């Protein structure tokens, strides 16, 4: 494997990267592609990519995508964490990390950490929120090692898994989350 190159993309680049994201998802979830929820992934790409604040990082191994991370700023007042946190943080601005996906060949090589760090490094929001399937405790533990805290659970679609709602401050000190009461 060559050293990975992390490239930044935005809403304006969606047409260029859309199929790459779909292809990486198909590889990452090859054993689950008969599930209707996973078959709707192109809709999620279009939904998130249609947000003017969409941000995406793709890790490239030469001309081959190894994985990606993407998300967008949450709509103020409609953040996923609100129903689970009793005290609003001083700064509730939130970046919703929608997807972090690494193809099987590159798993357990640090690619996920690099993608996550790179995506959040350019964010101005105070908080990052994401959802993790509650049947994947090792993935939840990985996010906990990155300073996320589980603040609740939600099932956003009738056919989706139940997810742990995980929240963290984007700054290294996580000072924003400490006032969240979660």
From TrEMBL:
<dbReference type="InterPro" id="IPR000182">
    <property type="entry name" value="GNAT_dom"/>
</dbReference>
<keyword id="KW-0012">Acyltransferase</keyword>
<keyword id="KW-0808">Transferase</keyword>
<dbReference type="GO" id="GO:0016746">
    <property type="term" value="F:acyltransferase activity"/>
</dbReference>
<dbReference type="InterPro" id="IPR016181">
    <property type="entry name" value="Acyl_CoA_acyltransferase"/>
</dbReference>
<feature type="domain" description="N-acetyltransferase">
    <location>
        <begin position="4"/>
        <end position="169"/>
    </location>
</feature>
<dbReference type="Pfam" id="PF00583">
    <property type="entry name" value="Acetyltransf_1"/>
</dbReference>
<protein>
    <submittedName>
        <fullName>GNAT family N-acetyltransferase</fullName>
        <ecNumber>2.3.1.-</ecNumber>
    </submittedName>
</protein>
């Amino acid at each position: 494997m060559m050293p990975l190159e992390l490239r930044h993309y935005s809403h304006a680049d969606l047409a260029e990267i859309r199929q790459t994201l779909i292809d990486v998802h198909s590889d990452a979830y090859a054993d689950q592609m008969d599930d209707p929820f996973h078959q709707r992934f192109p809709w999620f790409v279009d939904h998130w990519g249609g947000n003017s604040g969409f941000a995406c990082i793709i890790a490239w191994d030469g001309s081959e995508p190894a994985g990606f991370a993407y998300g967008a700023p949450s709509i103020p007042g409609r953040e996923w964490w609100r129903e689970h946190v009793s005290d609003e943080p001083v700064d509730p601005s939130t970046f919703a990390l929608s997807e972090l996906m690494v193809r099987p060949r590159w798993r357990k090589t640090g690619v996920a950490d690099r993608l996550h760090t790179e995506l959040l490094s350019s964010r101005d929001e105070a908080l990052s929120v994401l959802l993790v399937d509650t049947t994947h405790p090792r993935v939840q533990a990985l996010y906990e090692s990155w300073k996320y805290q589980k603040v609740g659970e939600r099932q956003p679609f009738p056919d989706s898994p139940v997810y742990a709602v995980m929240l963290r401050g984007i700054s290294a000190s996580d000072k924003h989350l400490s006032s969240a009461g979660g």
